[in-house]
């Protein structure tokens, strides 16, 4: 799965969590921040973690990923950082 595919999946999940109307006037990119740009609340992070677990299983543990960050890093986290985390935990694709 390419970065673009994972980005698309994450954007759809975010839309499901916050509602499509919140994203009407913005384009979510890898540089979009969860806190400043999207305004995600902690309950929305929980919902996003559940969606990630449904999609990727135990390979992608958002809670553990966030647990390795301090509060400033969490507040500044971007969609791209989450995409990178997901990509790093995907099974290797054989050619």
Give the strand tally. 0
Low-confidence stretches: none
The Rg value, from CA coordinates, equals 13 Å
> What share of the residues does DSSP label as strand, in percent?
under 5%
- Approximate helicity band: 55-70%
- SSE string: HHHHH
C-alpha termini separation: 13 Å
- Mean pLDDT comes to 88
The rough form would be described as globular
Please, how many helices? 5
Global structural class:
mainly alpha
Largest sheet: none
Keywords:
95 residues; mainly alpha
Task: Give a structural overview.
By secondary structure, the chain is an all-alpha fold. The protein is built from 5 helices and no strands. α1 (3-18) crosses α2 and α1 crosses α5. The radius of gyration is 13 Å and the shape is globular. It starts with a helix and ends in a 7-residue tail after the last helix. The model has no long low-confidence stretch (mean pLDDT 88).
């Amino acid at each position: 799965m390419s970065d673009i595919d994972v980005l698309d999946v994450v954007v759809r999940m975010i839309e499901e969590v916050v509602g499509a109307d919140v994203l009407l006037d913005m384009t979510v990119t890898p540089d979009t921040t969860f806190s400043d740009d999207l305004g995600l609340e902690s309950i929305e992070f929980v919902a996003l973690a559940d969606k990630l677990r449904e999609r990727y299983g135990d390979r992608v543990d958002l809670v553990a990923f966030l647990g390795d960050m301090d509060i400033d890093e969490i507040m500044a986290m971007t969609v791209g950082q989450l995409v990178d985390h997901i990509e790093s935990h995907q099974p290797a694709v054989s050619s």
